[in-house]
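Final paragraph of the annual report: two paired records, presented back to back.
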Amino acid sequence: MSNRYAYFIGCTTPFRESNYDLSTRRIMEKLDIELVEMEKAGCCGLYYELVNELSYLCMAARVISMAEDEKLDLMVICNGCNSSLYRANKKLRENPELKEEVNNVLADIDREFKGTTEVKHFVKVLWDEVGVDKIKEKVTNLLDLRVAVHYGCHLLRPSEEIKFDNPKDPVSLDELVEATGASSIDYPEKSLCCGGYVLASNQDIAYKMTGRKLINVKKAKADIMVTACPFCNVMYDANQRGVEKELGEKINIPVLHYPQLLGLSMGYTPREVGLEQNRVRVNPKIFE
């Protein structure tokens, strides 16, 4: 296991979910993992893939090349960034002609993609490399909570490329939640998309998708929901009031980033993991 990673936070987190970044830094500090800043890293290129593949690959390769300069693997905290950067890394490694085309573009900004760095979602880092047992050693406050986890689409899929966990029956995030002492509960349509990708084209459909899952979580009597992607969190937390209005039903399910939950079990205070920034309010006393 490495104790140093190039740290890529993407676009959504710094602009809308700074508590995700804050809590991630807290837990990594407890685990003795150094996060190396990637100044001016820019966008991963995810949405450009649908418009122009070369532009997408150049944007992704630029980010990856910055981690390569540090001779470090690249750790991401966004599912979309994970999919974008992982797939670009794989495609460029396997296609020398495409790699050369991308590097011809990157040469204009004195960058080069070499293909020497691995792209890893922080869930993979925690589950595969740190390990649940080591995480449990850092837990000082066992949490007596019923937690509904949401994996999100791009942490596990496309499965033939990502090759992490079992996309049909994943356990990684569940086991990481249970390392805190909490119970990870099952609920209907656990693998359902948050609706985020539909939001820009049809808010009504997106909110119905979000609401359908939140209602299932509520019916399963979860105390909280936990996510591992900033935009999934936006859909379930920041947009929950809009979803309630769309459905005409009160839901009121607190939604935490996984590093917030883990941080609280490690002894950090609610303020130290940015809990006051969560939109759906949660009584801090439930974590005592």
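The closing record of the year follows.
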Amino acid sequence: MQEISMTEEEERNHPFRDSQQDARAAELRPDTPQTRAPAYRLAFTDQEFLLREELRPVRLQLELLKPQMIMDARGIRSTIVMFGGARIPSPEARDTARTPTLAALSRYYDEARSFARMMTERSLRSYGVENVICTGGGPGVMEAGNQGAHDAGGVSIGLSIVLPHEQAPNGYVTPDLCFNFHYFAIRKMHFLMRAKAITVFPGGFGTLDELFEALTLIQTGRMRRIPFMLFGREFWQDIINWQALAEAGTISPEDLDLIRFVETADEAVAIIDGWQDPCAPCDD
């Protein structure tokens, strides 16, 4: 039988044999027809079993738990969320943009980078547990956010997702906080679970999905109201007729107060600094 070190013994808070030890011991099993059969594998080490259709609820739980446990272990208490398009080029690469509009939107790459740097400088005052930049981990605006945090010498989170056109995380995400997801729904939960403020830069379907999920949670009271800022008034008012929604009665006029339009990192920081939750009780 494999020996248990005193360190492992001390770390355990139950009398049972550690699952990691059993997993290692199972790899040393004798090679027989029985031990080679899939049925003999430990369930939690059997990838073929874990990927079965019936195990979806377990996989959902694992995707929720893994990032949560890692961020809890790092002591991360609050995040600054940055949504935005993967196709927004840096100003240096604007000549390679697929459309003139994308080339013009490159200015928001710099604003995203500046905003992330400014917020990370504040994060460092809390030893990196408050105001941690959180992006989707990809290129474009996401890269700018992680790069800004890197510029400030701080950490940042990247919540990547497996896509048919697989892309590696950008090189500025803190490796220990770089996560990969299969389920969009769980990924979006992690974007919002610690969010202290949300910024949304120009983007496409994915950005719109993230924007409206978060906005709906706030509108319906399922999530507390926090600063919610859209970078680029002209872009957002061009693609979404916000006023028409209110005039049609499909949203209330006061729902438009949930968002603020900004153009620069300084404006966004000022809104965060001056934020007072309208739903919070007032002091006498």
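The first helix runs from residue 6 to 11. This concludes the annual technical report; the extension proposal builds directly on these records.
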